[in-house]
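Figure S7 source data.
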Amino acid sequence: MSTAWTRKDLLTIRELNRIDIELILDTGRIFKNLLADSGKKSTSLEGHTVVNLFVEPSTRTRTSFELAAKRLGADVVSIDSNSSSFRKGETLKDTGQVLEAMNADFIILRHSAAGAPQFLAERLDTHLVNAGDGAHEHPTQALLDAFTMHERLGEKRSWKDLHVVICGDILFSRVARSNVWALTKLGARVTLVGPTTLVPEIFSELGVKITHDLDSVLPDADVIMLLRIQHERQRRSFFPSVGEYVSLFGLNMTRFKKCKPDVLIMHPGPVNRGIEIASELADGPNSTILDQVKNGLAIRMAVLHLLGGNNAK
Ligand code: CP
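Tokens for the predicted phosphoric acid mono(formamide)ester complex:
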């Protein structure tokens, strides 16, 4: 692998180009093979310290970053807001400086404020990785999503032949934003679907199509990505009732019958079963939900490995 990786941080997909994204996906493939070769670990981050700083809840991202760092041989510390000095009013900047003073080589930050990882990255020499910042970006989620699509469909189809429908609460979704950047840079067609209040027309400036009629796009979709309603970020109601949302935008068996037989059904999790997706589809053969979780480990290993100054070997 000859491409050089010189970035200090991974803050957004927006700042990456197609070559960067493909390098991460290729490196992820190497780590997925290494993990499949039972019990194998890398030593590329031996002697390095990785701090998981999660100021918002997480199961998948936090656990897989922790495992990824361990599989690379790093020492790992995890901090959450409830058991840290954030509770006593310590600022993000002071917290970052404390961790840097303890020789943290990487800080993996999840925060409710958009831009928090960038704010810290500009003030520290430590590598910063955005693990989700408010409604802004969730770069490693989009990378693992692209990896999963390529693994399940890409070897048969090139990105330019792929139509990805992303349905749900686009306005408040960092996953949607990072996926739009990643998929359009890779060359896929993207359609955003949801209520008019949650899918504003301004998103069409990102080179995607917008519709408020899920049924009309199902027959042409290769991938349907469902998103959770992010009640924690909404200060008012964006649709009349959950029942109405489910009837217009929930993926159920009736809608599934309108789709291509090999359509991929994706969801970043956590899933609200019976709202954005019926349980039988979430657990069915077209679902990639647990593949996405598994692939998150390989992708996060790739990101830490490359940021640590290693090229894919
Ligand atoms: N997809 C995702 O970010 O899940 P967690 O909130 O569990 O990390």
